[in-house]
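thought: fold this chain, then report.
action: predict
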Amino acid sequence: MARYTGPVCRLCRREGMKLFLKGERCYTEKCAIEKRNMPPGQHGRRRASKMQGYGVQLREKQKVKRTYGVLEDQFRRYFEMADRTRGITGETLLQLLERRLDNVIYRLGLSTSRPQARQLVRHGHFLVNGKKVDIPSYSVKAGDVITILGRTQKNVTIEHAIEEVKGRGIPEWLSFDATSLSGRIVSMPTREQINLPVQEQLIVELYSK
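observation:
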C-alpha cells in the first residue's frame, strides 16, 4: 500500500503544529516545531503570510491526512463514506479515522506514534476479538477487544512504548488492562473525545465545491 516515506518533521513545520509523527521525539526539545516553527524551504519565513479561503481549507485537510497517515485517494473515500452517513459529516469523518486499528493501537499506548503502530499491525502483532488482523485501516467497533499476539507480548518495541507513554492517559472511549495487555472499545468516539485541533467543517466545504 502506498504511503509517505519522506522526512516527517517538515510536515509538522508545514502545518505549523505537532502531528506527533516521530513518537517520543515530539515531546522533547528536539522537536522541529520547538526549534524552527516555520514552513520548510529557503522561503519558509515568507510563507507565514495569512491565508484565506481555499488555502485555509486545504491546510486543514492536510493536517488531518498527515496526522492519520492516509493519502488523498483513501482520504477522499473516508469523506465520501462520512458524507453518506447520517449525522454531521465533519465529525463522522474524524470518527472514521479514529476507528482505524493503527490509530487505536497508538491511542492505547501500545506504540509511540501512528507510523510505528501501522508497522506493528502490518507485521501481525495484534488480535481483534481473538483473530489476527494485519490491516492498519481495519475499522473497530464498540465492544471489540484488542490483544497482543502471545509471542509478541515481550516485544521490545511494545514494552518500550508502554513505558514511554505511561501517564499520558487514553481517550474515554477506550479502556486498557495493563495486566493482560488488552484494550477494549468502550464506545464510538465523540468529537469532544477526539483530541485534534482542526476545523473539520473547512474540509467539508473544500470537498463540497
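thought: worth noting. The first helix runs from residue 9 to 15.
final: C-alpha cells above.
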